[in-house]
Design goal:
Length: 230
């Protein structure tokens, strides 16, 4: 081994993670074997000899995870949830099957009173700005309606929920029937336009079985745990 370096920048770091471990030749040899034999390795010792480095080296050569483990809510028996294992192909199919409802519009594309109630349009000058701005950037007036009950408690509906806000209105179709339209403000500043049937379908899907991913597909193969054993 070369010694007498003038600077640490002259030290070449091996690309093989196993070669970066110094002073544990026997443990490294065993770790190399269990990497392709798919065996368990228990490392026991005081802090500092390189147990975590060996584990990280083993994790770096293991194949990528192929499955995801999820817990699905069981409405019939909440104490016994359902465990589901999905591969990447199944996850992709499930995502494609998710139906996208409604259309996304800008504050300029919706009726003026809707843009005002969602916090985008100033009621005085008609200027547009982000819903997070309480004061109009064009004329300096408050975008909310002055003199109402919300002003007393500083809880305007436009700002009480920064993530979502809905406005419902009706329109008359070509056949002469009235149709309910829901405008829902999105977190990114867009407006989701939904019909009443689309809104009900979204609400129904939210009530379906909830999924909690406990072991994700894109997970690290290195897991570290420490504790006192004295």
């Amino acid at each position: 081994m070369k010694t007498g370096y003038d600077s640490t920048k002259d030290v070449k770091i091996p690309k093989d993670p196993f070669e970066r471990i110094i002073g544990q030749d026997e443990a490294v040899a065993v770790a190399r074997m269990i990497s392709y034999q798919r065996r368990h390795l228990l490392l026991v010792g005081p802090p500092g000899p390189g147990k975590s480095m060996i584990a990280q080296a083993v994790a770096s050569v293991l194949p990528k995870p192929k499955y995801e483990i999820s817990i699905i809510e069981n409405p019939e028996n909440s104490e016994r949830p359902v465990v589901e294992i999905r591969d990447e192909e199944r996850i992709g199919k499930d995502r494609k099957n998710e139906k996208k409802l409604g259309r996304v519009a800008t504050p300029l594309e919706v009726p003026s009173f809707v843009a005002e109630r969602l916090g985008f349009r100033c009621r005085r000058c008609g200027g547009f700005s982000n819903y997070t701005e309480h004061i109009c950037i064009h004329c300096g007036a408050e975008k909310a309606v002055p003199g109402n009950i919300f002003e007393k408690y500083s809880q305007y509906p436009q700002y009480s929920d920064p993530n979502k806000m809905r406005v419902a209105t009706t329109r008359r179709t070509v056949e002469g029937k009235e149709e309910t339209i829901i405008y829902e403000r999105m977190q990114d500043g867009g407006i989701l336009v939904l019909t009443n049937s689309e809104f009900r379908e979204i609400e129904a899907s939210k009530k379906q079985k909830k999924r909690n991913v406990i072991v994700p597909l894109s997970r690290s193969t290195f897991v570290q745990a420490s504790g006192n054993t004295e």
